[in-house]
Amino acid sequence: MTALRAPSRIQKELGDITRKPIPGLTVEPQEDNLFLWKCSIKASNDSPYKGGTFHFNLTLPENFPFKAPSVQFTTKIYHPGINEEGSICVPVLRDQWKPAISLSSGMSLLFLISRMLNHFVRSLMTVVLEIISEKVNNPSPDDPYEPEIAAQLKDDKSRFLATAKEWTKKHATS
Question: What are the coiled-coil residue ranges (predicted)?
């Protein structure tokens, strides 16, 4: 797909997201730049970030879908997988990127189950956004951007939860 065809692919992805919205997630492409999306995640009630709304920019490259989009959080969050600059550590956006990802989680087991059941195949960006939402709502000490926060989550979960709640109240609520 050439750079000239990327906008039509992006329009298709946006259409898919509009028809089947992801609960708790909003996506608004910039009027003057289809390659830049303003997004937000409303944390789930069972998340350490309950009550918070976290904003991020999703930038699609000109050679999308052959190159992964980049994600930059603009709301501060105390999270082992999101660093101070707002970058998120998600393998599917780095070394595991494949333009053919098209299922709700991008995981091979769900891929096989979905194929077996002839399930609805979701758009690539729906998968990416669901993975980001899952990562935000379910912090894990594995593959962290912030090793100290990951260690705290692993070794002193109550302290991690208290700090995450404090940061959410300070930075992600109105």
Answer: none
